[in-house]
Amino acid sequence: MMTKNLPLLALLLSALYLPAHALEIGQSSPAFSLPGPAGAVRLDDFKGKIIYLDFWASWCGPCKQSFPWMNEMQTRYGSKGLQVVAINVDKKVADAGIFLKDHPATFSVAFDAEGKTPASYGLKGMPGSVLIGPDGKVLLVHNGFVPADRDALEQHIKQALAGKDKP
Asked: In sequence order, which residues have a C-beta less than 8 Å from that of residue 106 and are 6 or more positions away?
């Protein structure tokens, strides 16, 4: 019975993260500094890179599908300037830890139990992602994740990486 209510619960919880206005393409990405398993994770640490910023939670079904894809993107494009950063929004870091045991990450992970970062980015669903250019400006905002999204998202990453190399 509880699983039938998960989509509604996800929608209600995501509404808690809505700011007065959503982040738009071309806007500067809000800075953050959050704890992670290997220490602090700061947006400024990745300046000059293309950043695929993902917001996720242990209870999010599509997040289980996005993690292998994000690992693949980090492996394939990390040496070309991509950095995947995944921010967990669970209230308990232990819940994220259980998820990460089953779905390991080869990219940077941070924890935001208070949900301030997804609010500053205008998150509208779970998972939500933002592609950020080397100048810190938003290139793409994407809500949700289904296998059919993979090719289009990878194309955006490739275009961003190609644009990074232009004079």
From this structure: 71, 74, 75
Asked if residue 9 belongs to a domain, the reply is no
Question: For each of the chain's 167 residues, which pLDDT tens digit applies?
Answer: 444 444 444 444 444 444 445 678 899 999 999 999 989 999 999 999 999 999 999 999 999 999 999 999 999 999 999 999 999 999 999 999 999 999 999 999 999 999 999 999 988 788 999 999 999 999 999 999 999 999 999 999 999 999 854 43
Q: Where are the alpha helices (DSSP H) in 44-142?
A: 61-77, 93-102, 116-121
Return the SS3 of 15: helix
Number of domains, the chain: 1
Helices (H), the chain: 6-15, 61-77, 93-102, 116-121, 150-164
Domain, as residue range, for 148:
29-39+48-164
Its pTM stands at 0.84
Using the Cα atoms of residue 34, residue 87, residue 124 and residue 92 in order, give the sign of their dihedral.
negative
